[in-house]
Amino acid sequence: MWAESRDVCGPEGLRSWAATYTGRLADRIESRWLILAGSLTQSLGLCLFLRVTPASSPWTIAALLILRSLARGFIQSPIMTVTMATLPDHQVRLGVGLRGLLNSLGGTFGIACAGIVLQQRLAARTHAQLAPGPGATTLAYHDMFLLTAALVCLTALPVLWLRQRRGVSL
Predict the structure, then answer these.
(1) Do residues 67 and 41 make contact, with C-beta atoms less than 8 angstroms apart?
(2) Does residue 105 sit within a domain?
(3) Rounded distance, CA 60 to CA 41, Å?
(4) pLDDT per position in the chain (170 positions), as tens?
(5) Which residues fall within 8 angstroms of residue 35, CB to CB, at 6 or more apart?
(6) How many domains are contained in the chain?
(7) 105: Cβ–Cβ under 8 A, 6 or more apart, which residues?
(8) Cβ count near 89 (within 10 Å)
(9) Considering the domain boundaries, does residue 74 fall inside one?
(10) What is the DSSP string of 88-144?
(11) C-alpha span between 116 and 161 (Å, rounded)
(12) What is the DSSP-derived secondary structure letter of residue 52?
């Protein structure tokens, strides 16, 4: 069991490394470009999950999880930088707390919505095949990855309107 948990959660540690790197990079490049690059990479990674089948190797899945973690690192740190740069000094602590709360709520509701859509797609795919099986399950997951990739691209569009404040070094 521990080996399986390590294999799944291990790549997530790379997000911290990527966030540190993008934090430094954000000093030289506007944060919106880093967020956009991370979002598009995240979407690409989700599209690559469409190639995963029950016969896929664990190395393929690990590589996709690593790509996802690196992409999240390119999103999280610059978003924090942009968010905190817009707050007056006396509201930064409140802003950090609210951002953490909203991040947690968004993740919770996102997982719940994904589960509902996945369940609906599994029912539709199973009904279409007239028998449950790995084919229906795989196709339902593919539907979910494609929908999520489209949503990531859609939410990346408003990032283009993010601007640095004058006089603030992001």
Answers:
(1) yes
(2) yes
(3) 17
(4) 444 555 556 666 666 666 677 777 877 888 889 999 999 999 999 999 998 888 888 889 888 988 988 888 888 888 888 888 888 889 989 988 998 899 899 889 999 999 999 999 999 888 877 655 568 888 899 999 999 999 999 998 898 888 765 444 44
(5) 74, 75, 78, 79, 82, 156, 159, 162
(6) 1
(7) none
(8) 7
(9) yes
(10) -GGGHHHHHHHHHHHHHHHHHHHHHHHHHHHHHHHHHHHHHHTS--HHHHHHHHHHH
(11) 32
(12) -
CA dist., res. 33 & res. 166, Å (int):
17
**36 inside domain:** yes
Helix axes 31-48, 14-25, angle to 10 degrees: 150
Proportion of the chain in helix, strand, coil states, percent, rounded to 5: 85, 0, 15
Distance (Å, rounded) from C-alpha 110 to C-alpha 16?
A: 22
Q: What is the pTM of this model?
A: 0.79
Q: Are 71 and 19 in contact (CB under 8 A)?
A: no
Q: Residue 77, class by beta-carbon neighbours within 10 Å (0-12 exposed, 13-18 middle, 19+ buried)?
A: buried
Domain extent for 106: 2-161
SS3 call for 87: coil
